[in-house]
Write a structure and sequence with these properties.
Length: 313
């Protein structure tokens, strides 16, 4: 396509969730509160795990990194959304950089959820293996998770950086999502569509397959347990993880795996709000409210702080 008569686009305008001034004011307050709770909740989880020796296990190591990723994931999206509520036109000069950050943290979360499922499988189905090379295996899984996130993000940003944008620059979303961006390109987008789709599809399928297989073995092991207390404890530790997986994968697959003709742009925005903004806030609650070990560690940490304050007096 000839582009000499077009102006090259270097900045993009985010249209946001709504253009209604009243709704913008309400949404700004609501999502600002959600963002603050997200940051405080996830930082609290990280501090609690680092400060509690009884939580220095593979499961909580992965959970602390999940909390870190959730902070990054929410921060890569929510501030831009908040800006769109305050301004009629929110301009983003570094749209592809924001997209890369979003994909990096989102993909890393997929790998971490799969690693956590594998850790539960080892702890419940093969408990004798959990003491063999635990630190090495954990750090390998963590390294692979972050590396996988960076590699998937590079497939998105690499393809989009090779595209030319010379037409409209308004993105009908509350952040720089790849599909609205592709619609604005004035060049050939086949490679830019197929390469990220293959990369993301591979991530979703491989991590979801790992999770499903792990939980099939876990369920088989739980059903064969003779102790009711052991069965209840195993179910308790797995329920939180399954809740987080269902929420995250359900919304992500709705957005990226369903046929585009089957839903509207507004439905995509709602689903995107859930997995980029709401779930990072819910994860600390999901993993703490239903977890006796976390609640016990929190009680001991508060008791230590109270005791140290009394000694200072």
């Amino acid at each position: 396509m000839e582009t000499e008569n077009h102006t090259t686009v270097t900045e993009f305008i985010i249209l946001g969730l709504t253009d209604n001034p009243t709704l913008c004011a309400i949404f700004f307050v609501v999502f600002l509160a959600v963002y603050i709770v997200t940051i405080m909740g996830n930082i609290s989880i990280i501090i609690l795990i680092r400060s509690s020796p009884q939580l220095h296990t593979p499961m909580y190591l992965f959970l602390s990194h999940l909390a870190f990723v959730d902070i990054g994931y929410s921060t890569s999206v929510t501030p831009i959304m908040l800006m769109s509520f305050l301004r009629e036109r929110t301009t983003i000069p570094v749209c592809i950089a924001q997209l890369g950050s979003d994909v990096t943290f989102g993909t890393t979360e997929c790998f971490l959820l799969a690693a956590m499922a594998y850790d539960r499988y080892v702890a419940i189905y093969c408990p004798l293996l959990i003491h063999l090379n635990v630190p090495r295996v954990c750090f390998l899984l963590l390294g692979a998770s972050y590396l996988g996130g960076c590699m998937n993000a590079s497939s998105f940003t690499g393809c989009l950086m090779n595209l030319s944008f010379c037409g409209p620059n308004k993105i009908n979303h509350f952040f720089c999502d790849p599909f609205p961006l592709l619609k604005l390109s004035c060049g050939h987008v086949y490679i830019a569509e197929i390469s990220p789709a293959i990369s993301s599809g591979s991530v979703l399928v491989s991590t979801l397959f790992t999770i499903i297989v792990s939980y099939i073995y876990i369920l088989h092991s739980i059903l064969n347990m003779h102790s009711t207390e052991g069965r209840n404890k195993a179910f308790s530790t797995c329920t939180s993880h399954l809740t987080a997986i269902t929420l995250f994968y359900g919304t992500v697959m709705f957005v990226y795996m369903m046929p585009k003709s089957s839903y509207s742009a507004d439905q995509v925005k709602v689903a995107s709000v859930i997995y980029t903004v709401v779930i990072p806030m819910l994860n600390p609650l999901i993993y703490s409210l239903r977890n006796k070990e976390v609640k016990e560690a929190m009680r001991k940490l508060m008791a230590r702080k109270h005791f140290s304050e009394l000694n200072k007096r």
